[in-house]
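Example 3.2
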Amino acid sequence: MARLSQGRNRRTGRPGAFGMTTCLSLAGLVLVTSCAEVMEDRGTVIQENRPVSGVMSAGPQDAAKAPSGATDGVPDSAPAPAVVREGAEEDGTVTFEGTGQFLGPRANRQATVTVRQGQVVINFENAELRDVVRTILGDTLKVSYIYDPRVQGLVSLQTTSALPTEAVLGTLETILRMNGAALLIDQGVYKVVPADEAIRGNTVPELGGPGFEPLPPGYAVKVVPLQYISAVQMDKLLAPFVPPEGVVRVDLDRNLIILAGNSQELRRLMDTVAIFDVDWLAGMSVGIFPLAHVSPETLIGELDAVFGSDADGPLAGLVKLVPVKRLNALLVVSTKPRYLEEVQTWVDRLDKGTAAGQNLYVYYLNNGKATEIAKILADIFSDRKKEDEQAQAPGRLAPGQ
C-alpha cells in the first residue's frame, strides 16, 4: 500500500516536500525495499535514496522474528529498487526496469575421455574445441600445448570402441582439420594454430620417400623425389586426391614434388605417389617387325582398322604403332605382351606383294643385238617398279611444290 503526504513550508508558505513510501506486505510482514524522499527547496529538486535496514513487522513484539539472512541494505534476492522518473511528484509514475534477457545461457557440454588399460574412450557432445584440446592434450596425454584463441568450433564425437593411445592424436588432427586448424609439434610443445598459418614460419621441409612406415603426428611438409615419372604428370595424378586445404608444389628442375598436410593426409598422398612412380619402360612390351612387300605407313593404316588402336578405338593407348622408314619395319609398343603376338599374326597376313608371280621366257633376236635389247628392257621394268612403289606409298608433293 502507498501513502502520500503533503505539507506546507512554514517559511515560504508554499507546498512543502512530498514524502512517498512504498511498502510491500506479505503474511503480516512488511518488507520495505526502499524509501525515496524528494525535497523541494527554492526550485531545486534533491533526490536521496536511503535503504531501510531490517524487516519491519506490524508490532514491536515481532521485531525479534527477523530472518537471519536479512542484512542492512537491499538483499541480493530482493527486486530492483523503484526508479522514480523526473516529474514523479506530479503524476506519481513509478517504473521497475528488468534485465531484458528471456533465455538462459547456452549449456556447455563437457568433453570426457576415459582411459582404460591403454585404451581411450572419447565422448564429446557439442563441446567447445578449446575444451576438447585441453582434455586430450592436457588431461589425457599430459603434454604441454599452446592454443591459438582464433581457433574456435564445436565438436561432437563418440567412439563405439576404445582407441589405442597412439591413435588419439590422429583423431585430434582430424577434428582440428574439420574446424580449419592444424596441430604442430615444436621441440616437444604442441601448437594448435589456424590451418592457413601452419606452414609459414612454423614448419621445416623434410625428405620423404615412398616407404609405408607410419608418420609422426602433427602438420608437416615432405619433399618427395620422383624416380620414374615426371613431376608434372604426378601433379595431375594427385589432383583428385589432394584435400581442399592440402598443398602440392612441383619442382621441374629437380623432378620432385612438395607435399604439406597432417600425418594422415601426408600418408595417403605418399602412398599414392608410390603407386604411380614405377619403372614405366620395364612394364612395356616392344616389338620390331621388318616388312618385305608393304610400306610401314600403309600397314599402320590397315592395322589401326583391325585393332582399333586409333584415338577413338577401344585399344587407344594400349597398342602404339610407329613406322621405321630407315629399316622398312614396324615398331609396336604395348602395355600387354600378348598384343605383340596378335600384331605378328596380322603382319604376316597383310605383308603380301601385288604381283601374281614371275615366269622366264627366251626370245631369239633376228635383227638386233641382245645387249642393247636387254638394256632397254631393264630400264623399262625398273621404271615400272618405281611407279608401283610410289603408288603404294601415301600421296606426297613433288619436290619444290
